[in-house]
Amino acid sequence: MASVPSHRVALAGVVWLALCTGCATTSKSDYIVPGTTDLRISQVDLRGVEQVSESELRDGLATREDPGWRAAVPWLPLIGAERQYFNQFSWQRDRERIETFYQRRGYFGASIVSESIIENPQESTISVRVTIDEGEPTRIERIELEGLDASSELSRDALLKELPLNQGAIFTQDDYLTTRDALGRRLREAGYAYAAVSGRAFVDPESQKADVFFFIDAGPRSRFGEVHIFGLEDVEERYVREAITLEPGERYDPQRLNETQEDVYELGVFGLVTVLPAHEAREFTLEEADDRDRLEDLLEESNIPDDSDPQAGVDARPRPGVDAAIAPGDDGAANREDASQSSETSEDSPRERALGVSTLLESAQLEAERRSRLDPEVPVVVRLKEAKKYNLRVGAGLAVESARQDVRGLLNWSARNFLGGLRRLDHFNAAGYAWAPGLIPSADLVNRGAILSSELRFSQPQFIERRTNLRLIASVERDVREGFSVWNPALRVGLDRPIFRKLRLEASYNVAYYNYFNVEESLVDVSTTTLGLDFQTEFLLEYLEQSLILDMRNDVLDPTSGALVALTVQEAGGFAVGGEFDFIKPVLSAEGYVPFDLLGRSVLAMRTRLGSVYNIGRDTGVPIQNRLYSGGTDGMRSFGRQRLSLYTPSGEAVPVGGLTQFEWSVEPRVRLVPNLFSIGDVWGAIFVDAATILRGQLEFDTAANDQGTVSFSQLAPSLLYGLGTGVWWNTPVGPVRLDFAYTLSDTSQDPRFRRCADPSTQGTEACVFVPQDDDAIQELLVGYGFYLSIGHSF
């Protein structure tokens, strides 16, 4: 990459600063917003607000309380804010906004009954106080559907089932629009690609009643037509078509369009993918003139007129003196005058209303007749925008755990469509320095040193056949941990393939070389053989791994509904290059997310994990990095990372894992603040964690096992419990989360976390604990944990 001379950068910066300063000076000194005063707003007091959310009402007003001390740091992201001065014109518009806010929520008779604006010249402030009479809500008296073909498979009840607009419910414009859009969506899901729904709502604020009419224009029953691809530059079209499974003549189903969009996006070379029926694709602008011409020719050939958007409806506006109507596309501000006049409607109001409905039906019927001539075979338009081919990212990171801290620099680069054929190459690099267990250790042991990781990833979609992906990962790592440092070059060759839409199978071959140094003496001491380690400072590990993953979550980073179930099995052995261990390691995990309402939007999040390692061959035991641990953000959160473990029976306290693991967590999540600073919602949670690590193999013994077995009945009594709370902010980079957890269980009497005076009796009834103050394990288990992270534990 060519560098820019520093003096040019400095000069450009000075010029830019001068220009921006001039602009800022002009905008602030020469222009004053009409109606603005020099009085800061000390208070906005809204009285009588009971039936609606006061915070939502305030968010919609331009008149807001002055931020106080935050105005002293307006340049500070997220915290800083501008001064709020009273503006007479803005307040007059806010009065209208208050009434509109209530009307959108079904309170058409709401009004401001009193108002006081009090100035304080000594402090240059002003306070605003209004009292609101909310009145009674308007409820739905009847809902009518017109235009539904009697021969259709869809019935009125099926179309209206579980929609927000119901007879007797409070009428709101949002519910009306949601219901109208849902009706159109259900028709399209039934195979009517051109389905359109228009409607009208007649509101009478005096009687607090509303009549709602929808006209159903289903259009012809549709099939998929030819697929047309737009926007390709470097990627060959044949690879995109290989990912598309839509067949001409197949029954129209919008879900199939969504699935096709996901399949094309997963090719990894596109920054934008939209898959739409041709009559909806006109809304999207194509960059290339040739593509625009192709699309217009396609629409003309398919006899698709410009106004055939399935969301378009008959926008019949109400006349003065007729009950207020909300027509498709209204923003809620329109027709307020008609609403206010409805209380004065004459005896002819029912007749006028009938005429209004008749006009709507007549216009909709004419539109339906015109659109009935549309071709039932619907062309599909795939619009693509290729992602940036090369990316380079430089950064820095800091990781703070109770068992380890590190600082590191990051250098990552990626190449999409590498050498063509959809191939992708990514290179992730990090270098820094680490301390374990920490800068201020709780034990005498301190291991420190340089850390390094470099990982090269190569992926080839459509390997062998259209749905199979090849993935190669080559890496080298130098790491610092409690009790040892390690060099670890590794290679992974894997294949993955979806079996069904939500079910994926992954298989890989893995080989890794481990070279341990700066090893704590207790790891290599002969007494540690009671843990089945037979610790080796240098060895080769070779294993196969298979995973079956069922992912039904609605979001990967911040799931609020659905579930994830995964079964992973590792088989170590000497397959190709002479691996030195023989074991089988199955791990079953599950996550679930159930939305519910408790003090607002809430989600019940749950997880569990069960795993065991079975030594099936040579007497080399199970290497330390393949044993099972808990603790940290992805385990028992009141323990540090991998601190819930068995420990070396002598010397310093080094966690060495176990052969059986069981965990579960329950975490009710509640939204606390919607859209803080217009960035994202703030959520909070209280969680309970439970976990155990046991020495023996679960249920089954093997010839090479020297650690014994444990039964399912022993899992629950050995669980440790922790209680914690967390808060996070949903930002564009993911949930930024802070957690605190505290251990409820007493570890001081648990033999897994106590040293024996005679190390050879560790784990037996003959063990006599050393004094707690002299126990190195107890010094490490502080009983609580703090975590600041991006993303959830699960």
UniProtKB/TrEMBL annotation:
Signal peptide: none annotated. The keyword Membrane applies. It comes from Lujinxingia sediminis. Residues 321-332 have a biased composition (Low complexity). This is POTRA domain-containing protein. It is found in: Membrane. Residues 39-135 form the POTRA domain. It comes from the Bacteria. Residues 301-354 are annotated as: Disordered. Its main location: membrane. Pfam families: Omp85, POTRA. Keywords: Membrane, Transmembrane, Transmembrane beta strand.
